Each structure stands twice: as structure tokens, then as C-alpha cells.
Amino acid sequence: MGFVLKVMGFLGWALLSLIAIVPVVAARHRPWSHSKKVNISEEDLVTELAGQPKVEFSHYAGYVTVNEKHGRALFYWFYEASSHPEEKPLVLWLNGGPGCSSVGYGATQEIGPFTVDTDGSGLKLNPYSWNRARFTLPSEGWRSRLLPSDPDEANMLFLESPAGVGFSYSNTTTDYDTLGDSVTAKDTYIFLHKWFNKFPTYRHRSFYIAGESYAGKYVPELAELIYDMNKHPSLHINLKGFLLGNPETSDADDWRGMVDYAWSHAVISDETHKIIKESCNFDKGDPWSNDSCSQAVDELLNQYKEIDIYSLYTSVCTNSTSSNDGSMQVMYNSKSKMMPRIMGGYDPCLDDYAKTFYNRPDVQKALHVSDDLHLKNWSICNYKIFREWSESRPSIVPIYKKLIAAGLRIWVYSGDTDGRVPVLSTRYSLGALELPITRAWRPWYHQKQVGGWFQEYEGLTFATFRGAGHAVPTFKPSESLALFASFLAGESMPSER
Question: Which residues are known to be catalytic?
Fold first, then answer.
């Protein structure tokens, strides 16, 4: 309750006055679509992005200032749904780290409409983008039953958060000293309300939050804040639920799952596993609390330095230009025990391509980042933020219980070749909820093949992806799109071939 009161004091009247004074921009009509006229933010329209393929939807990029006094601003990139955006829900995507870019990962490597060419010179269309789902799902079978108005695609909003991530920044350097879960949730909440003033037709749209990795904490924390603040009608956001992939959930269970997974997948020896099980007490939150535990955990991390912890069975990037910033290493923060996703996917050098592309002056200008005089030094992860993260909730399980009781739609999925937040970690964490099972463990199918397994509980669905690493859509784009469509429609995963 104290946390809610602090948040209300921080946000309440400021947002009420803020919403009252921000003007509504003029409407426009897109002649190539059947959309109704909508009020949107024309100044953020992206029109001359280098190497962009022709598309039949509009997209926008720019800044929203979340603290005028400190000059703290967050960068976003927004893609309208490819058809009838005025009828489709809005989905906010967050990557984790903490300190990693939702533009560099989610928008560019996973679920956005464009991916970066291997030389960083331009963009390619992503046929499995979550903003254009209708055009990529199979014509036969279960999805063909949908009517044109059914929400099988979405308007996608990617946010670089908190300040200091990607293009987001603060003019007050001390802001970077206090970054943590609470600050991130508050700033993202303010961002949403101010963003709705740029795009007022989305204010009352069905709204979902999605993300992966450390966003397993960001997303439920933001959802809880929205739920609590919705008690004030003038601040209402039409939150319907959230979707999480390979999420950090409970520090103790995440650690236990990581250790057991490494042992069961032959990354560590029987002896190392035994020492960890006998000497480490993860419930205390510090696996370095004694020498035996510390040495054994360090041995686990050293073994993972030899491969890609985020994708056990794919190659590492041997020609990385960013190895000096730690991107080829297992990164750990001795305070919070978190780690950003670094490498993974079918092409392990994707991060390098993104770094080249987003540091081009013409790209930054097109995205309304640069004025040609002040270029931003963009990196896919900010390791200073990662190392100095000041506050992290040890467990999000209580938030799950609260929001399940509130009736939100909650889905969790897990790629089963991820060693960083492995499927065992997620199963251990969700097991703590002790939810009644409504549909027992069974395979789900995509294009007549087993995509993974799933189980439905009262208030939550959990699904696995067979053969996918940490960033599931990078490994299984078509299957991920099918799961996303099921989530939006509120339907079970297909359990027949």
C-alpha cells in the first residue's frame, strides 16, 4: 500500500495537469488503407529511413519527456498495424537487461517489421512481424476462422527504457545513479500518458504489455502500477493483460533453475552441481555467501563463457566488433545477479549489424534522434546501467497473484534451449503460484509440427518453444507469431495437427 501511495503522490496531480495542457494534434487520412481518419503525431512520422522497404503502414519515432525539470526523455518507435489500425489493440514491447534496447532487440531482431542487413546498410522486411500477422498466418486451419475484425495483429510500440538505454537520455547525470525497478515503472507510466496525448485515438484502445528476460520484472511492475492508478478515472488505461518470454521472475527460483538446467544439459559436472546444491542458499539472495558456493557458481559461469548461454546449440559470433564492451562474455552484476541477453539466434552477429545501422547519422536523423550536430552514441546494451542497477524486486510472484485475481490475461512462454532464464527457472517460479490446472500439459502444433508444450491454469497460460533460445521470436518467428495471435484472440494454442 505504501508503494502505491508513493506512486500516486509522484504521478497523480502531475499527470492530471499534464494531460490537461498537452494539445491534440490534427488528423490525417492514409489514402492507401481503409482506415478511418485518426488523430496522430505528424512531427514524429518516419518518412526517409535509409534502406527501408516500401510498406503500407505508417510508423513513428521520437521522444517523450517524462521529467521536464531534469530533461529526462525516453525514445520510442511505433508501428501501426498493417491493416485497420483503428480497430486493432496496442501492444507495448519492453526488453530487459536491465540496460538493453527494445529497438535493438525487439524491434530490429525479433518482432518488428524490419531487420537490419548484415552490413548495416539498410533494412529487410520481417514477414513475421507482430504488426502484420494476418498476412503471414497459414490460410488453412484454425486461424482461418477469424473474422476481419478479430485482433490477430496489433499496433506495436517499442520503448527504450529507462533513461540511458539506447537513444533515451537525461540531462541530469545524477538520474543515472538511482535507476531501478520503481523508477523505470514510474517513468514508463508517465511516458504512456504523454504518448497517448501524441496519439489520442489509442488512449482507450485495448492495451497489452509484452517483453522478455528482465522485462519479466518490468512488465508486471508496470501492469500493477497501471492497475492501481486506474482507480482514478482520468488516468485510466485499458489494460487487458501481458505476455512474457523467458522472464526473470523470482531470483531464488531463477538461480535454482539455471543451475539444474546447466547440469541436466551437460554444461557443468556432477561434482559442481552437487557442491552448489549443498552449499548455496539462493533464498538468501546471495550465491556468493560462502567460498564453496562462490567457487562452484563461478565454475558454472566460466563454462558458459565458452558457448552462448542464451542459445546452447548455436554458434557464437567470432568476428564481433564489440567484444571490448563485454558482449562476448557472460555478464553478471554482483548486487542484483542479472544478465542481459547478448548473443543468440540463427545469426549470432545481429547485435553488430544493429550497432552499425543505428549509429549512422542519416538513420538517426530519420528517426528524429539527431539534428546533424549532436549525434547519439547508440549501443544495444548499456553496461554501466547493468552494473549499477540500484533496485530490483527479488520476486514478482506476489504481483502475479494480485493481477490474476484482477482478471488480467497473463501468458508466459519459454524457449527450451536458453541457459540464462531456462525453462526450469520459469517452471519453478510459476509453481510457487500453486494455480489449479484447467488444461493439462500437452503439445501444441504449428504447420503440423510440435511447436512446444503448454498448460493452462486458472488465470495463466504457460507454453514452451521447442528448440528456441532466449529471444524466442529470433529462433522461431512463425511459431511466435502464432502464439501471439492466440494470445490476442484469447484462444488456446492449437493442440491438434
Answer: 213, 418, 470
